[in-house]
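User: Quick sanity check before I run a bigger batch. Here is a single chain. Can you write out its predicted 3D structure?
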Amino acid sequence: MAAGQPFSVSLSGGLDKSTNSLSLLQTPGVATKLRNFEVSIEGGYRRINGFTLLGGESAARPNSSNDVEGLEVYADGVVAVVGNDIFFSLDGTAWLQINKASVDASGDNYSTFTGRSELSLTNLDQCEFAIYEGISEYGELIITDKSGSNKPFLFKMTGTGALTNRTFFVSQITISGSKTAKHCTIHNNHLVVAGDTSTPNTLYYSGTADIDSFSSTGSGSIVLEDKIVGLKSFRNELFIFCQNSLFKLQNINNSSTIAVVPVTKNVGCIDGQTIQEIAGDLIFLAPDGFRTVAGTARIGDVELGTISQNIQPIINDIVLNKSQYQFSSVVIRTKSQYRMFYSKTTDSTSTSKGIIGVLRPQGFEWSETLGIQAPAICSGFDSNGEEKFYHGDRDGYIYNHNVGNTFNPAGVETAVNAEYQSPDYDYGDLGTLKTLDYVKLSITPESLAQPTLRVRFDYDDLDTPQPVDIPLTAVPEPALFGAAVFNNQTFGAAQQPLVRQALTGSGHSNFFKIFSSDTRAPYTINGIYINYRPAGRQ
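Assistant: Done. Predicted structure follows.
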């Protein structure tokens, strides 16, 4: 009998859907399937967290079952656009409608504000938000929406504690006549908007430090040669994302040198909802994949990079069906992570998809999500400096995002279906038959974990006998001195356990699949060690 041979793989590289099966033999650490896992910044692949209802058992929907069209962290709570109305809440258990038709110039107290008549907004669609810090306690919040049917809406609140102790200000901002706006941002003390349906190529900017006036000193407008789909202030310049091109606005505060400079006329943006800033760069979805706008050492110079070649088949499908999808995106700073969600308006929560990109030293590494419906999502720091994450669905529910162990659509606890699959391993020689003796899996549990292992030989060949799935022995979370909770962790468990599992079967190559569908805590798969015995060449 041939002696056993070792083979070990450290998992890294993320999802790879573009490389052919033979080339993947050279990159055993990547994944051919990586769903509801995220690339960990500490290495390996971690099953993602879930989401919970904002407000817990006392959660309330702001506006019945209407779609959530926008969310923004504001002050010490969250602003939600649901249906054709706008709401504010401190905790998700009670919502204050804030789209009011008129408010006193010096602000309304709570009683007066709640008694005001409703400001009628029509056809509200996915929203964009901008906060002008100015000298206000929480800043002034501006809201525009994708329908192009409404003027920008401004909301400001002052005071602390209960809402009954606060003062409220609201207004609609007139751009020029009856012009509306789909896109907004704050740039160098100006409110900049675009997307009026009658002038889709025109950019409007407010007076200097006068964000609710588009006729005061410093205001103006610029006509571009392409339809504007998004705006982002970045490194003292305003980047203007268009359907087929990208521009930047320079020197907005100097009327004699203000200029729009083309960055590229060959690359456009699929949807402004995909634009985010991460790690000092801008990221957005272009027709050829995710791209970054990165500043270089040269002042005023930028570099465009393509970062999603490994998942190009997924991108191609998204671009092909882009008109059917609603997009949203968010950055989770503590994980150097960009998340983009996309789904059709007819998709259920269970069929809604997303993409996670994690910035690693060698570039972005990718994975997919399934089961998170998030036409609206946001992150931001509240008045206490704590970063919050929220998303909303098409049934009017709002959730704490990236929290807990389970998915909770409509408050119903649901298992997280997670799946990792390796490339085929040929152990250095595809022509030699190998018999697998055992595998050791390096798994870091965050509580008791019990995934399932599947082994398939010869690219899952139907003519090759395939072993049955193996539920792994439960992997306990170790008890660490100073952090362990009695009766919650296992004393004596390894901090980085290796789960040994005997195997059966043989083939020229094989892949491993590790998957789970449960409500347990996340776990991280760090690496795989295999002991195999080579036989004759066949």
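The chain has two helices and 42 strands.

User: Great, the batch can go ahead then.
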